[in-house]
Please model this.
Amino acid sequence: MPRYLRKYGPSGRAWAPNWYEYPEVYSVITALWETWEQMRWDGPQQILVFYRDYFYPLMDRLTAQDGPFHAYDKVMHPQLPEMFPVAEAPEGYFRSSVQ
Model:
């Protein structure tokens, strides 16, 4: 993240140094990394497409004040925010990727 420089705090972007403990953030950062690895071999134009279509929109969403880090406060509340309540999806709801 050394090149993603944004205003941090109540009037800026939200972030937590333990980002890897947030399941949503971990999965998005992992997907970004894998996309970067795939696209960087396709040349400079694809690197620009990566930033335009993937990196900036997703980082803007992850670091938004109402994003995954909305409840993080390094002094008062260093714990993760509560997860949304979830009911188990009915069997067969998701298509299997295995054929």
